[in-house]
Amino acid sequence: MGKTIAQKIIAAHLLSGDMTPGSEAALRIDQTLTQDATGTMAYLEFETMGIPRVKTELSIAYVDHNTLQCGFENGDDHRYLQSVTAKHGVYFSRPGNGICHQVHLERFGKPGKTLIGSDSHTPTGGGIGMLAFGAGGLDVAVAMGGGAYYITMPKMFKVNLTGKLRPYVTAKDVSLELLRILSVKGGVGAIIEWGGEGISTLSVPERGTITNMGTELGATTSIFPSDEITRQFLAAQGREEDYVPLASDPDAEYDRIIDIDLSSLKPMIACPHSPDNVVEVASLKDVKVDQVCIGSCTNSSLYDMLKVAAMLKGKTIHPSVSLSVSPGSRQVLTMLSDCGALSDILASGARVLECACGPCIGMGFSPNSGGVSLRTFNRNFLGRSGTKDGQVYLVSPETAVASALTGYITDPTTIGEPLNVTMPDKFLINDSAVLPPVPAEEAESAPVLRGPNIKEFPKSKPFTDSLSAELVLKVGDNITTDHIMPAGAKILPYRSNIPYMSKFCFEVCDPTFPDRAKAAGDGIIVGGSNYGQGSSREHAALVPMYLGIRCVIAKSFARIHIANLINAGILPATFENPEDYDKLSQGAKLTISDIAAGMEAGRLTVTDDTGAQYQVICNMTPRQRSILMAGGLLNYTKEGGI
């Protein structure tokens, strides 16, 4: 039997385990990336491991999330990141150089290589044929130290594309259509490969948009072949030597095949408050728009920005609309300026923001109270924009511009002649904002600069054979990491200060949770389906661990979050009978006995204070069981488990 693209890359990087779906596979990692909101903790963890120099082919630290410097905290953390990466062999992308996924796609990603990043949208690298995974910061730290990255071997899905996109229908609409088909849970446990004759019509930036949005499906990752389109992009970036062709075998087998005819697609829109709440744009034509945001790692490429500029040229945005445009990298911004497109954007009345994540993670440009905000981003979770009652919709850049011009949600196919925008034959190359580490012979004496906001990494507790704890919080389905540990301008500056961040844990669901959890001592959380979807931020596990949470029982978990829980020393378990979820009430006293034997058997018994018993499933590998019994991955690694 032939292999898929992902199976070929996995086979070439397999350190241990096997490739049977559902089994654990340990992979050699070629490249890592971090961003500042999660990376600060990752480097604190790397320092704790005591390994002097990274062992990957390439590791890069980006500063793109928390670039607002309203106090000393962000500036201190950026200084720490620059100094700690220089000492340990990591390249440093300075603030303003751009969004990690956009810059990595442009300058560093290589077909056929493995990449993990402390950001859930790292699968953007699949747009050039990388096997790229989002992961928690501790997993990235271990990979930088030469350790394996462990995955549960996924199923293989294939999306066959036929036809060609019509004018004003985009790669974002392709992604939204697949979310409509599969939902935010439909890709869990699968790698999505994109193929079919239609992929030859899609540029690398368009492919990157699609693999970026694959994260919202819950997929392990997404990947395109590396073909002539890939070669042309790398050549234009001055990196043709990085090109290698990659394709699946003709007789490769897939667990599911989905067909999408590009020619029949229409502009799509995800309504509040989930990326899979998708309808056709035309169905919402009477909805008034207050704000439009264009950018993020999903839609901030030069190709996207040139289309935005062409649509805005000679026009003025509607008086009732506030429009922001965030180019994805310094390369994109400079090329927009050089060709005059930036002037067209500015003349329309748009506000040009820094080359950073910005509004996507609630870092400024929040909508007005109850405002309708159209965003070219990847997530529209409740409150993520920074405005609790903001009504956030996800759209393509073309739909965003059309709506900004009219003041209402507008189908862009109705407003003008087709755009004539082409990719350049050569991009502007200037990597001066990527700083190399100090030479290895100078590393020992290189200082690491720490500000007072950087606190000690929290200590977790090893498991004994029984746990008695209060059910301190019960939540519903699709709880995101934004629910658990919000982002935004008020909180992100304290990402290296777990005690302070803990005050905001589950603020969206229950502001009393932090105090109640601390008072309980040991605590248990009960959740519904798809618990922990969204960002890879390990703070959503580290902060509950700091507050005393020892176990989370849910109907199902998102992939990255369940790994982060185990890494933090929190026991994740799923209900054997999902109806038992309804029988447990917040405040109940729960006991879990025979933990070591139960984990080995894959099943634990939970007893409440009435004597009622519930069976929960905890299917884990021997390595994961050892991590939990040690009290988390850091303890396990320090004991020699890397």
Write the layout of secondary structure elements.
Blueprint: H1 5-13, E1 14-17, E2 24-27, E3 31-35, H2 36-49, E4 58-62, H3 72-88, E5 91-93, H4 100-107, E6 114-117, E7 131-134, H5 137-144, E8 149-152, E9 155-162, H6 171-182, E10 190-195, H7 204-213, E11 221-223, H8 228-236, E12 256-261, E13 268-270, E14 278-280, E15 291-294, H9 302-312, E16 322-325, H10 330-339, H11 341-347, E17 351-352, E18 372-375, E19 391-394, H12 397-406, E20 434-435, E21 467-474, H13 481-484, H14 498-501, H15 513-520, E22 523-527, H16 539-546, E23 549-554, H17 559-567, E24 571-575, E25 589-592, H18 595-601, E26 603-607, E27 613-617, H19 622-630, H20 633-641
Parallel strand pairs: 3-4, 3-6, 4-5, 6-7, 9-10, 9-12, 10-11, 15-16, 15-18, 16-17, 18-19, 21-22, 22-23, 23-24
Antiparallel strand pairs: 1-2, 2-8, 5-20, 13-14, 21-25, 24-27, 25-26, 26-27
List keywords for this structure.
single chain, alpha/beta, 6-stranded mixed β-sheet, 20 helices, 19% strand, globular
The secondary structure category is: alpha/beta
Distance separating the two termini = 33 Å
**How much of the residues is beta strand, in percent?**
15-25%
Strand order of the largest sheet: 21-22-23-24-27-26-25
Question: Mean of residue pLDDT?
Answer: 95
Task: Please work out how many helical segments DSSP would assign.
Answer: 20
Output the radius of gyration: 23 Å
Largest β sheet strand count, sense and barrel closure: 7 strands, mixed, barrel
Task: Count the E strands.
Answer: 27
Form type: globular
Low-confidence stretches: none
Percent of residues in helices comes to 25-40%
